[in-house]
Amino acid sequence: ATFKGWYTATVANGGGSNITSSTKVTITAAQTLYARWEVTSSVAVNLSRGRQQGDGILTQAIASGAIQSASITGTLYSDSSSNEVEDYRCDVSIYANDTQLDLLYSNQTSTSKSINMSLGAFSNGLTIKLLVHPHSTDEGSGSFNGTVTYTKLE
After folding, report:
1. Comparing C-alpha atoms, which of 60, 47, 62, 123 is closest to residue 92?
2. 3-state secondary structure the chain
3. Residue 102, Cβ neighbours under 10 Å: how many?
4. Residue ranges of the chain with pLDDT lower than 70?
């Protein structure tokens, strides 16, 4: 954790004003100051749906509250099977909250893709979502295995 200074309120209560060595303060009553820390955390993300028909959505909550920055690394995997002669595929999408980060599809085979990207800031927490969408009536599976690293003020 990195010390960010003294403040007149907690992050949860609006953050308050930063009090520095050059801040002039008139004290008329007891004054409480709150230490502010920048904390970086990492969370393992392992979302996996086995081979089956129909769409599947898996989610994992990463953190609540305001997030200063976040990044994600890992492997996205898609697998499809078909008993049909026609083209068949299984789409696997990964999302940060409701924003699609990447899409991977397999066409009668399995495939994987490495992901390493910055996600930016989030004002109301972060959830990672995996959508597995087999086309047609055949079966598909998908997974994401990786890590989300994020920074918050506390």
Report:
1. 47
2. CEEEEEECCCHHHCCCCEECCCCCCCCCCCCCCEEEEEEEEEEEEEEEEEEECCCEEEEEEEECCCEEEEEEEEEEEEEECCCCCCCCCEEEEEEECCEEEEEEEECCCEEEEEEEEEEEEECCCEEEEEEEEECCCCCEEEEEEEEEEEEEEC
3. 15
4. 81-88, 108, 136-137
CA proximity to 55, closest of 144, 130, 146, 145: 130
Structure-token match 């994987």, residue found: 112
Digit-coded pLDDT (tens) for 82-109: 555 455 677 899 999 999 999 887 776 7
**Block residue for tokens 């392992």:** 46
